[in-house]
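Exercise 7b. Backbone tokens:
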């Protein structure tokens, strides 16, 4: 009986160790990616802000924005929901779904990045278009952003001419992220165009090659790509943060389970030893009697 109990203890302990090793690997990978993405998000935010400030110096009219990028405020809208590929990210996806449920906007089409996010939205009765091509391809985030912008332009040609919004977990700190809805298209608000800035007056003598409009369009295109790139990177960072916390909690639970196994085996071992000692004492008593 003691041997069977010991074998069961070894088997259970081995399973717990395997789980703990998997948790340790996942946690280390998440931490490594977190530090890399944290630096990247900071750099991209700075670059995007510089591009936006540069756009404001062009003193353009709303009509200077390409027609394919303009949007009718009352047209059919498009939503891009950005989530994770798998679970173990705490309540990230549930909070995004709650945010979506509180929104009063009707969307003509809903795209989803992240297999787990798409599954949860579908199970909630929401019709979505899962972007299968992005699954496992988020290493090339800038390429994904460029492809998505072209997709949104194509949607407008199909009649989805309303604004394009992005729902994603916005990174705040290693312990906090916020479900956020952000307008992607049109790229500039009305107050950002048709206003002459101080920089425009100061730089009135600047010559643009090949032309001011072409330079403006290049900066605008780059700004949109990086704005979406920033959102996608920030969403990944928030998901990694949630995974790190989940892995830390899972590691604690694995240690608790291992401790309970050791305590249970120790208790069983003491019980068996005590029982044998009693049996030996009784046997000696009988023989001696």
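Sequence design result:
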């Amino acid at each position: 009986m003691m041997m069977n109990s010991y074998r069961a203890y070894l088997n259970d302990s081995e399973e717990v160790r395997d789980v703990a090793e998997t948790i340790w690997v996942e946690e280390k990978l998440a931490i490594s990616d977190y530090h890399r993405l944290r630096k990247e998000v900071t750099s991209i935010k700075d670059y995007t802000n510089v591009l936006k400030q540069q756009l404001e110096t062009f003193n353009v009219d709303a009509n200077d924005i390409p027609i394919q990028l303009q949007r009718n405020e009352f047209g059919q809208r498009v939503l891009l929901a950005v989530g994770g590929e798998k679970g173990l990210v705490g309540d990230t996806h549930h909070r995004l779904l709650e945010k979506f449920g509180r929104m009063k906007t009707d969307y003509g089409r809903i795209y989803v990045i992240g297999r787990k996010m798409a599954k949860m939205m579908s199970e909630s009765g929401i019709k979505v278009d899962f972007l299968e091509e992005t699954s496992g391809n988020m290493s090339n985030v800038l390429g994904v952003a460029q492809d998505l912008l072209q997709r949104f332009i194509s949607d407008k040609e199909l009649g989805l001419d309303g604004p394009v919004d992005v729902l994603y977990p916005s990174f705040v700190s290693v312990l906090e992220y916020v479900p956020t809805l952000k307008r992607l298209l049109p790229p500039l608000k009305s107050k950002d165009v048709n206003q002459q800035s101080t920089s425009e007056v100061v730089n009135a003598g600047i010559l643009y090659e090949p032309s001011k409009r072409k330079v403006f369009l290049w900066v605008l295109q780059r700004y949109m790509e990086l704005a979406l790139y920033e959102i996608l990177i920030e969403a990944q960072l928030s998901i990694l943060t949630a995974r790190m916390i989940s892995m830390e909690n899972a590691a604690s639970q694995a240690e608790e389970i291992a401790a309970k196994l050791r305590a249970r085996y120790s208790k069983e071992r003491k019980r068996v030893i005590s029982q044998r000692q009693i049996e030996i004492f009784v046997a000696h008593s009988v023989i001696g009697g």
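Instructor comment: The longest strand covers residues 164-173. Residues 22-247 form a domain with the Pyruvate Kinase; Chain: A, domain 1 fold (CATH 3.40.1380.10).
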